[in-house]
Amino acid sequence: MKLMTWRRAGGPIVLLFILLFAMSGCLARRRVITRQGAKPSQVLQVASKDDLLQRISQQYEAVHDFSATVDMVPALGSAEKSKITEYKDVRGYILFRKPVDIRIIGLYPVIRNKAFDMVSNGTDFRLYIPAKNRFVVGKNELSTPSPNKIENLRPQHFLDALLVKPLGSGQPKEKPALANLTDEDNAAYILEFIQESKDGQLHVDRQVWFSRVDLRMARQLIFDGAGNILTDARYSNWQTYDGVPFPKHIEINRPQDEYAVVLNVVKMDVNKGVSADKFALERPEGAIEQVLGQKPQPGAQQVEQKPPAPAPRRRKGSQ
Questions:
Q1: CB-based burial of residue 252 (10 Å sphere; 0-12 exposed, 13-18 middle, 19+ buried)?
Q2: Are 250 and 234 in contact (CB under 8 A)?
Q3: In CATH, what number does 49-304 get?
Q4: Do residues 109 and 88 touch, judged by C-beta distance below 8 A?
Q5: pLDDT reported for residue 308
Q6: How far apart are CA 87 and CA 74, in angstroms?
Q7: N- to C-terminal Cα distance for the chain?
Q8: Can you list the residues of the chain whose pLDDT is less than 70?
Q9: Residue 114 contacts by C-beta under 8 Å, 6 or more apart in sequence?
């Protein structure tokens, strides 16, 4: 009897489900996910961990030297302190030669007088600030941040951001791991480089993000041993310069040092040779030398110094 009742009721129930599915077109709403830099119908790229490691290696090996003219937007301050000051229209020149030689020159807006000149050989750096007639020397490693934020600049920080190092470069114990961050807002592969410290503890040394739209590098995060962000570099608008792909737009943020800079490449020559003398920066006559970690010693140098060249008229935000 119960079986007969179920069979009699089965017809209307089946009909009800058919009607519901038929009406599903009215009840459901289809949304098109559009991601930055991609067409709505574009299929996301697929890659393995080894594929992405090879991309980093190929990009790094493709660049032996370069000279670039860039527009720079330096910024001082940090998001944590809720205060960031930007300086517009700074023209810059960046010279690089493997393995680690780099020189960066910044010019003031409009008048284009030199604002700073800094060079590094990978271990030591030199920084000349004409407006203050100061010549700063020290190690690339920043132990104690200076209240004068421009003195926290290190050419090596730029180099670490401009050229993403391949697996094991200087860190032989690095182990890679891959994560796929794909949702409605993101479509990225995150390649993590995990480092083992001397006491056996594991920590993420850096992350390299790849856009799944084109598998180009989109971001690099470098961390300290406690997991704090040392460098946050973002890459976009990739172009080809002398047959080598390179991002035209680069954002470099150093939150612990409280400075950041946005670079837009104006002109770039890759692998055309940069001579060693381009990385020689000597203390100008009369400039006060400061060794980081020590107070400036004016002494005889300050007495004997000649008046510096006329400094640019101070504008709001100039150093």
A1: buried
A2: yes
A3: 2.50.20.10
A4: yes
A5: 36
A6: 5
A7: 94
A8: 1-41, 77-87, 143-145, 148-151, 170, 172, 293-319
A9: 105, 106, 107, 108, 130
